[in-house]
Amino acid sequence: MTAPRTASDAAGPAADAVASDTAALDAAVAPAPAMRLRGVRLGYGETEVVHGVDLDVPRHATTVIIGANGCGKSTLLRGLTRQLPLRGGSIEVLGQDVGALSAKAYARTVALLPQSPLVPDGMTVEQLVDRGRHPHRSWLGTRTREDDAVIASALTRMDLVDLADRQVSHLSGGQRQRVWLALVLAQQTPVILLDEPTSYLDMSHQVELLELVKGLPDPTAPGEGSAGGEAAAASDSASASDGAAHPTGPHRATTVAVLHELNMAARVADHVVAMAAGRIVAAGTPAEVLVPDVLAKVFDLAADVITDPLLGHPVVLPRTAAEAARG
Length: 327
What we know:
The structure is a single chain. By secondary structure, the protein is α/β, with parallel strands linked by helices. It has one domain (about 35-325): P-loop containing nucleotide triphosphate hydrolases (Rossmann fold, 3-Layer(aba) Sandwich). It has 13 helices and 12 strands. The protein has helices spanning about 5-10, 10-30, 75-80, 105, 125-130, 145-155, 175-185, 205-215, 230-240, 260-270, 285-290, 290-300, 320-325; strands spanning about 35-45, 45-55, 60-65, 90-95, 95, 110-115, 190-195, 255-260, 270-275, 280-285, 300-305, 315-320. Strands 6-7-8-3-9-10 form a 6-stranded mixed sheet, sandwiched between helices. A 4-stranded antiparallel sheet has the order 2-1-4-5, covered by helices on one side. The protein has a two-stranded antiparallel ribbon with strand order 11-12. Strand 4 (about 90-95) and strand 5 form a beta hairpin. Helix 6 runs antiparallel to helix 7, helix 6 runs parallel beside helix 9 (about 230-240) and helix 7 (about 175-185) runs parallel beside helix 8 (about 205-215). It is globular, with a radius of gyration of 22 Å.
Protein backbone atom coordinates (compact mmCIF):
# COMPACT_ATOMS: atom_id res chain seq x y z
CA MET A 1 0.00 0.00 0.00
CA THR A 2 1.25 3.48 -0.86
CA ALA A 3 1.81 5.66 2.16
CA PRO A 4 -0.51 8.66 2.37
CA ARG A 5 1.00 11.97 1.22
CA THR A 6 0.74 15.11 3.29
CA ALA A 7 0.34 18.60 1.82
CA SER A 8 3.98 19.31 2.51
CA ASP A 9 4.98 16.06 0.74
CA ALA A 10 2.99 17.04 -2.32
CA ALA A 11 4.60 20.46 -2.40
CA GLY A 12 8.06 18.99 -1.84
CA PRO A 13 9.86 19.97 -5.08
CA ALA A 14 8.26 23.42 -5.17
CA ALA A 15 8.98 24.02 -1.50
CA ASP A 16 12.59 22.94 -1.97
CA ALA A 17 12.95 25.34 -4.89
CA VAL A 18 11.52 28.22 -2.86
CA ALA A 19 13.83 27.42 0.07
CA SER A 20 16.82 27.28 -2.28
CA ASP A 21 15.88 30.62 -3.87
CA THR A 22 15.40 32.19 -0.43
CA ALA A 23 18.80 30.97 0.77
CA ALA A 24 20.45 32.31 -2.39
CA LEU A 25 18.71 35.68 -1.93
CA ASP A 26 19.81 35.86 1.71
CA ALA A 27 23.39 35.12 0.69
CA ALA A 28 23.26 37.82 -1.99
CA VAL A 29 21.82 40.44 0.38
CA ALA A 30 24.10 39.69 3.35
CA PRO A 31 27.36 41.63 3.08
CA ALA A 32 30.59 39.67 2.88
CA PRO A 33 32.46 39.61 6.19
CA ALA A 34 35.02 42.34 6.79
CA MET A 35 37.52 39.72 7.96
CA ARG A 36 37.46 36.00 7.29
CA LEU A 37 39.68 33.64 9.30
CA ARG A 38 40.09 30.00 8.39
CA GLY A 39 42.22 27.56 10.37
CA VAL A 40 44.25 30.37 11.96
CA ARG A 41 47.09 29.25 14.22
CA LEU A 42 49.27 31.71 16.17
CA GLY A 43 51.85 31.52 18.92
CA TYR A 44 55.17 32.56 20.43
CA GLY A 45 58.37 30.55 20.12
CA GLU A 46 57.49 26.89 20.42
CA THR A 47 54.14 27.58 22.12
CA GLU A 48 50.98 27.66 20.05
CA VAL A 49 48.34 29.92 21.64
CA VAL A 50 45.57 30.12 19.02
CA HIS A 51 44.49 26.79 17.57
CA GLY A 52 42.74 26.51 14.20
CA VAL A 53 40.31 29.42 14.56
CA ASP A 54 37.54 29.91 12.00
CA LEU A 55 35.76 33.26 12.29
CA ASP A 56 33.76 35.70 10.17
CA VAL A 57 33.87 39.29 11.43
CA PRO A 58 30.68 41.06 10.27
CA ARG A 59 31.11 44.24 8.27
CA HIS A 60 29.86 47.63 9.51
CA ALA A 61 29.39 46.31 13.06
CA THR A 62 31.18 46.21 16.41
CA THR A 63 32.64 42.83 17.38
CA VAL A 64 33.93 42.30 20.92
CA ILE A 65 36.25 39.42 21.84
CA ILE A 66 35.93 38.21 25.44
CA GLY A 67 37.67 35.52 27.47
CA ALA A 68 39.73 34.85 30.57
CA ASN A 69 43.34 36.02 30.85
CA GLY A 70 45.62 33.90 28.69
CA CYS A 71 42.83 32.57 26.47
CA GLY A 72 44.42 33.94 23.29
CA LYS A 73 42.21 36.94 22.52
CA SER A 74 45.02 39.53 22.40
CA THR A 75 47.17 37.06 20.47
CA LEU A 76 44.37 36.71 17.93
CA LEU A 77 44.19 40.50 17.63
CA ARG A 78 47.96 40.64 17.01
CA GLY A 79 47.48 38.13 14.22
CA LEU A 80 44.83 40.35 12.66
CA THR A 81 47.29 43.28 12.72
CA ARG A 82 50.10 41.14 11.22
CA GLN A 83 52.26 41.70 14.30
CA LEU A 84 52.40 37.92 14.61
CA PRO A 85 53.04 35.73 11.57
CA LEU A 86 50.54 33.00 10.83
CA ARG A 87 51.63 29.47 11.75
CA GLY A 88 48.77 28.09 9.71
CA GLY A 89 45.50 29.04 8.04
CA SER A 90 44.50 32.26 6.30
CA ILE A 91 43.15 35.72 7.04
CA GLU A 92 41.28 37.86 4.53
CA VAL A 93 40.34 41.50 5.01
CA LEU A 94 37.66 42.93 2.71
CA GLY A 95 38.16 39.95 0.44
CA GLN A 96 41.96 40.22 0.15
CA ASP A 97 44.56 37.90 1.64
CA VAL A 98 46.43 39.96 4.22
CA GLY A 99 49.73 38.44 3.16
CA ALA A 100 49.31 39.90 -0.32
CA LEU A 101 48.97 43.50 0.91
CA SER A 102 51.93 45.84 1.28
CA ALA A 103 52.51 47.44 4.68
CA LYS A 104 51.17 50.78 3.43
CA ALA A 105 48.10 49.21 1.80
CA TYR A 106 47.33 47.30 4.98
CA ALA A 107 47.73 50.46 7.08
CA ARG A 108 45.18 52.14 4.79
CA THR A 109 42.75 49.30 5.45
CA VAL A 110 43.24 48.31 9.11
CA ALA A 111 44.06 50.60 12.05
CA LEU A 112 45.13 49.46 15.51
CA LEU A 113 44.72 51.14 18.88
CA PRO A 114 47.09 49.09 21.07
CA GLN A 115 46.81 48.65 24.81
CA SER A 116 48.57 51.46 26.74
CA PRO A 117 50.23 53.16 23.74
CA LEU A 118 53.19 55.46 24.48
CA VAL A 119 53.36 59.13 23.48
CA PRO A 120 56.71 60.84 22.74
CA ASP A 121 57.54 63.59 25.24
CA GLY A 122 56.35 67.05 24.30
CA MET A 123 54.01 65.91 21.51
CA THR A 124 50.80 67.90 21.15
CA VAL A 125 47.35 66.53 20.41
CA GLU A 126 47.39 67.70 16.80
CA GLN A 127 50.90 66.33 16.22
CA LEU A 128 49.86 62.90 17.44
CA VAL A 129 46.68 62.86 15.35
CA ASP A 130 48.78 63.90 12.34
CA ARG A 131 50.65 60.59 12.61
CA GLY A 132 47.50 58.82 11.47
CA ARG A 133 48.00 60.37 8.03
CA HIS A 134 51.40 58.74 7.39
CA PRO A 135 50.03 55.75 5.39
CA HIS A 136 48.38 58.17 2.96
CA ARG A 137 51.48 60.28 2.21
CA SER A 138 54.14 60.01 -0.44
CA TRP A 139 57.71 59.13 0.44
CA LEU A 140 58.38 62.87 0.88
CA GLY A 141 55.85 62.94 3.73
CA THR A 142 54.56 66.43 2.91
CA ARG A 143 51.32 67.44 4.68
CA THR A 144 48.54 68.32 2.23
CA ARG A 145 45.28 70.22 2.34
CA GLU A 146 43.48 66.90 2.46
CA ASP A 147 45.51 65.98 5.53
CA ASP A 148 44.51 69.28 7.15
CA ALA A 149 40.82 68.60 6.46
CA VAL A 150 40.95 65.01 7.74
CA ILE A 151 42.81 65.99 10.92
CA ALA A 152 40.36 68.85 11.58
CA SER A 153 37.45 66.44 11.12
CA ALA A 154 38.98 63.89 13.52
CA LEU A 155 39.60 66.55 16.18
CA THR A 156 36.02 67.77 15.81
CA ARG A 157 34.52 64.29 16.04
CA MET A 158 36.45 63.57 19.23
CA ASP A 159 35.71 67.02 20.73
CA LEU A 160 39.41 67.89 20.86
CA VAL A 161 39.57 71.17 18.93
CA ASP A 162 40.19 73.22 22.09
CA LEU A 163 42.94 70.81 23.15
CA ALA A 164 44.77 70.63 19.81
CA ASP A 165 47.83 72.54 21.06
CA ARG A 166 48.01 70.86 24.48
CA GLN A 167 50.66 68.27 25.21
CA VAL A 168 49.13 64.79 25.29
CA SER A 169 51.01 63.97 28.49
CA HIS A 170 49.13 66.76 30.27
CA LEU A 171 45.70 65.29 29.54
CA SER A 172 43.51 63.00 31.63
CA GLY A 173 43.22 59.29 30.80
CA GLY A 174 39.86 59.75 29.11
CA GLN A 175 41.13 62.66 27.03
CA ARG A 176 44.22 60.72 25.96
CA GLN A 177 42.09 57.84 24.74
CA ARG A 178 40.02 60.27 22.68
CA VAL A 179 43.25 61.57 21.15
CA TRP A 180 44.24 58.04 20.13
CA LEU A 181 40.78 57.50 18.62
CA ALA A 182 41.25 60.74 16.68
CA LEU A 183 44.53 59.33 15.33
CA VAL A 184 42.68 56.19 14.25
CA LEU A 185 40.04 58.35 12.55
CA ALA A 186 42.73 60.33 10.75
CA GLN A 187 44.15 57.05 9.43
CA GLN A 188 40.83 56.62 7.58
CA THR A 189 40.54 52.85 7.55
CA PRO A 190 37.31 50.88 7.16
CA VAL A 191 38.48 48.33 9.79
CA ILE A 192 39.60 49.33 13.30
CA LEU A 193 41.11 47.02 15.95
CA LEU A 194 41.24 48.00 19.64
CA ASP A 195 43.11 46.08 22.34
CA GLU A 196 41.47 46.73 25.73
CA PRO A 197 40.76 50.41 24.99
CA THR A 198 39.06 51.01 28.36
CA SER A 199 41.97 49.83 30.53
CA TYR A 200 42.71 52.18 33.44
CA LEU A 201 39.61 54.32 32.75
CA ASP A 202 36.92 54.95 35.34
CA MET A 203 33.34 53.89 34.67
CA SER A 204 32.12 57.16 33.17
CA HIS A 205 35.07 57.37 30.78
CA GLN A 206 34.60 53.71 29.79
CA VAL A 207 31.00 54.42 28.79
CA GLU A 208 32.00 57.59 26.95
CA LEU A 209 34.82 55.90 25.05
CA LEU A 210 32.75 52.89 24.01
CA GLU A 211 29.97 55.16 22.75
CA LEU A 212 32.59 56.88 20.58
CA VAL A 213 33.86 53.49 19.37
CA LYS A 214 30.38 52.38 18.34
CA GLY A 215 29.95 55.61 16.38
CA LEU A 216 33.22 55.46 14.42
CA PRO A 217 32.52 56.06 10.72
CA ASP A 218 33.63 54.08 7.68
CA PRO A 219 35.63 56.60 5.62
CA THR A 220 34.92 54.62 2.46
CA ALA A 221 31.16 55.21 2.83
CA PRO A 222 29.50 57.96 0.77
CA GLY A 223 29.89 61.34 2.48
CA GLU A 224 32.49 60.08 4.97
CA GLY A 225 35.65 60.96 3.05
CA SER A 226 37.60 64.17 3.33
CA ALA A 227 35.07 65.98 1.19
CA GLY A 228 32.27 66.91 3.47
CA GLY A 229 34.05 65.28 6.40
CA GLU A 230 33.92 68.35 8.59
CA ALA A 231 30.19 68.76 8.03
CA ALA A 232 29.64 65.10 8.86
CA ALA A 233 31.74 65.51 11.99
CA ALA A 234 29.69 68.48 13.14
CA SER A 235 26.50 66.52 12.49
CA ASP A 236 27.81 63.51 14.41
CA SER A 237 28.91 65.73 17.30
CA ALA A 238 25.46 67.25 17.53
CA SER A 239 23.80 63.83 17.29
CA ALA A 240 25.96 62.48 20.10
CA SER A 241 25.03 65.37 22.36
CA ASP A 242 21.36 64.85 21.57
CA GLY A 243 21.58 61.12 22.34
CA ALA A 244 20.75 60.18 18.76
CA ALA A 245 21.40 56.74 17.29
CA HIS A 246 24.85 55.80 15.98
CA PRO A 247 25.64 55.63 12.27
CA THR A 248 24.11 52.52 10.77
CA GLY A 249 24.71 50.24 7.79
CA PRO A 250 27.59 51.16 5.48
CA HIS A 251 28.30 54.40 7.37
CA ARG A 252 29.73 52.50 10.37
CA ALA A 253 33.30 51.29 10.52
CA THR A 254 33.99 47.65 11.25
CA THR A 255 35.45 47.57 14.76
CA VAL A 256 36.94 44.65 16.66
CA ALA A 257 37.74 45.21 20.33
CA VAL A 258 39.15 43.05 23.10
CA LEU A 259 37.32 43.87 26.35
CA HIS A 260 37.44 42.45 29.86
CA GLU A 261 34.30 44.06 31.28
CA LEU A 262 31.38 41.85 30.22
CA ASN A 263 28.63 44.39 30.78
CA MET A 264 30.52 46.98 28.75
CA ALA A 265 30.92 44.37 26.01
CA ALA A 266 27.17 43.71 26.08
CA ARG A 267 26.50 47.43 25.87
CA VAL A 268 28.65 48.18 22.82
CA ALA A 269 28.77 44.93 20.82
CA ASP A 270 26.68 43.84 17.88
CA HIS A 271 28.64 40.58 17.76
CA VAL A 272 30.45 38.82 20.61
CA VAL A 273 33.18 36.19 20.27
CA ALA A 274 33.98 34.13 23.40
CA MET A 275 37.37 32.39 23.56
CA ALA A 276 38.84 29.76 25.87
CA ALA A 277 42.16 27.91 25.60
CA GLY A 278 42.93 29.43 22.19
CA ARG A 279 39.66 28.39 20.59
CA ILE A 280 36.30 30.02 19.92
CA VAL A 281 33.63 28.67 22.26
CA ALA A 282 30.71 30.79 21.07
CA ALA A 283 29.97 33.63 18.64
CA GLY A 284 26.79 35.59 18.05
CA THR A 285 24.78 38.46 19.43
CA PRO A 286 25.32 39.50 23.07
CA ALA A 287 22.06 37.78 24.00
CA GLU A 288 23.25 34.54 22.38
CA VAL A 289 26.75 34.48 23.88
CA LEU A 290 26.38 36.08 27.31
CA VAL A 291 24.42 33.22 28.84
CA PRO A 292 25.18 31.21 32.00
CA ASP A 293 26.40 28.08 30.20
CA VAL A 294 28.92 29.97 28.05
CA LEU A 295 30.11 32.10 30.98
CA ALA A 296 30.72 28.97 33.01
CA LYS A 297 32.70 27.38 30.18
CA VAL A 298 34.77 30.48 29.34
CA PHE A 299 35.34 32.04 32.76
CA ASP A 300 34.49 29.21 35.15
CA LEU A 301 31.96 31.71 36.44
CA ALA A 302 28.54 31.17 37.99
CA ALA A 303 26.28 34.02 36.92
CA ASP A 304 22.73 35.13 36.43
CA VAL A 305 21.92 37.15 33.31
CA ILE A 306 19.14 39.70 33.20
CA THR A 307 18.03 42.24 30.60
CA ASP A 308 18.84 45.92 30.91
CA PRO A 309 15.39 47.52 31.33
CA LEU A 310 16.29 50.60 29.24
CA LEU A 311 18.69 49.43 26.52
CA GLY A 312 17.70 45.75 26.28
CA HIS A 313 21.19 44.23 26.32
CA PRO A 314 22.19 41.41 28.71
CA VAL A 315 23.53 42.30 32.16
CA VAL A 316 25.78 39.74 33.84
CA LEU A 317 25.43 39.27 37.61
CA PRO A 318 28.39 37.22 38.88
CA ARG A 319 27.76 34.77 41.73
CA THR A 320 30.06 32.96 44.13
CA ALA A 321 29.68 29.21 44.42
CA ALA A 322 27.79 29.67 47.70
CA GLU A 323 25.43 32.23 46.16
CA ALA A 324 24.82 30.00 43.16
CA ALA A 325 24.03 27.07 45.47
CA ARG A 326 21.43 29.16 47.31
CA GLY A 327 19.83 30.10 44.03
